[in-house]
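Translate structure to sequence.
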């Protein structure tokens, strides 16, 4: 037997520490959820339930959060840190990611994963942490249970917001300004061969394929793609 130090706590004390920690996390996360415009319109009760369902994850700089082509298990909200989305690229045998084309940057208050949840498709991009990032995550099952009939509208708003953030023009607007744009956007359905009306400034494809003619010839827009007049 050697000299040593021992830390201990009885069951009641340990349980209280866990309760206090959970309460502090809930209060902090609940306050953060109030700042996310995606949940504007939800009741306080619904937001409380989201706050109870989310859990924290931390990724160091360079870590892969989501990989293109993988199934998406839930939705992520950026609490702290910076990330980027990349199209293409490869994962080396050692797990390191290389190549690809950077599509957009993601920061505090932004979210991702909504497109795959909305359409049921696999992740369309790889998400990499640029710095140490703290994320709030919620599984697709719990998100459906919490939001119910409001889920589709929330995911559509989130998808449209992420499309605006990819535009070199609207990405310069504040989050509040982008959200005001989303509020006046409408979702239209078009049959195969139907012509899209002239004069539309911004288009984001939720599902299907659009084809048209641009300055450089035929332009094809797939799901998750966007088009902005003059860009």
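Result:
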């Amino acid at each position: 037997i050697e000299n040593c130090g021992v830390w201990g706590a009885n069951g009641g004390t340990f349980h209280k520490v866990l309760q206090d920690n959970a309460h502090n996390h809930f209060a902090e996360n609940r306050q953060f959820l109030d700042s996310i415009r995606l949940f504007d319109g939800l009741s306080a009760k619904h937001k409380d339930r989201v706050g109870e369902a989310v859990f924290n994850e931390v990724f160091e700089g360079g870590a892969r959060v989501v990989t293109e082509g993988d199934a998406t298990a839930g939705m992520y909200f950026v609490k702290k840190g910076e990330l980027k989305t990349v199209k293409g690229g490869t994962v080396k045998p050692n797990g390191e990611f290389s190549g690809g084309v950077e599509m957009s940057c993601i920061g505090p208050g932004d979210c991702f994963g909504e497109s795959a949840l909305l359409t049921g498709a696999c992740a369309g991009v790889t998400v990499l942490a640029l710095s140490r990032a703290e994320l709030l995550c919620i599984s697709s099952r719990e998100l459906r249970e919490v939001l119910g009939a409001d889920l589709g509208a929330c995911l559509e708003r989130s998808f449209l917001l992420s499309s605006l953030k990819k535009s070199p023009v609207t990405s310069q607007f504040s989050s509040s300004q982008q959200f005001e744009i989303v509020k006046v956007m409408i979702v239209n359905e078009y049959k195969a061969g139907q012509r899209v009306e002239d004069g539309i400034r911004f288009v984001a494809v939720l599902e299907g394929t659009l084809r048209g003619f641009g300055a450089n010839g035929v332009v094809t827009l797939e799901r998750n793609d966007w088009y902005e007049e003059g860009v």
